[in-house]
Structure prediction request, 199 residues.
Amino acid sequence: MIGRLRGTLLSKQPPWLLLEVGGVGYELEAPMSTVYDLPGIGKEVILLTHYAVKEDSVALYGFLRESERSLFRSLQKVSGIGAKIALAVLSGVSTDHFARLVQAGDVVALTKIPGIGKKTAERIVVELRDRVDGLAGVPGSGLATGAAMPADAAGEATVALQQLGYKPAEVSRLVQKVAAEGDDAEAIIRKALRAALGS
Prediction:
């Protein structure tokens, strides 16, 4: 099992990252909460990982903070939630905010996250209410400094939001609504997620 990687960040095309460790390039999927805080291309980074093996695939997921990895793992224990929805949750809300929503039983706010319907939100509240206390305030272990400027910020943001489960028409509307001149992709994605989740 691969639990942690330390290496050079070669590329980031949300949600995909390429990290070179000892001459080997590892492709990882990461939530936007991790992508936001990554250093620039060519910089060293330490990522906590989750290695998933299924019948027909193998996947590696990367996180800057243990709280994110713990929530990613906990979410997948809820019936009907897989890795894609778990990444969407982490991309849409912070672990602290998610813990508050679950503790408050705020099903309506949870359904604003792509892929989560009312029944899934209710299951999350029931199954995770006792587990989310430990998620808030877990210290991180990643190295994070500034981010690289993408060539086409709006295009990169659009692709990332679609991969998080938003419909193309909704993504186009959100990006047009929130994108401002000079914004990089990360800024556009943050604004779009805030607008979509109403926070």
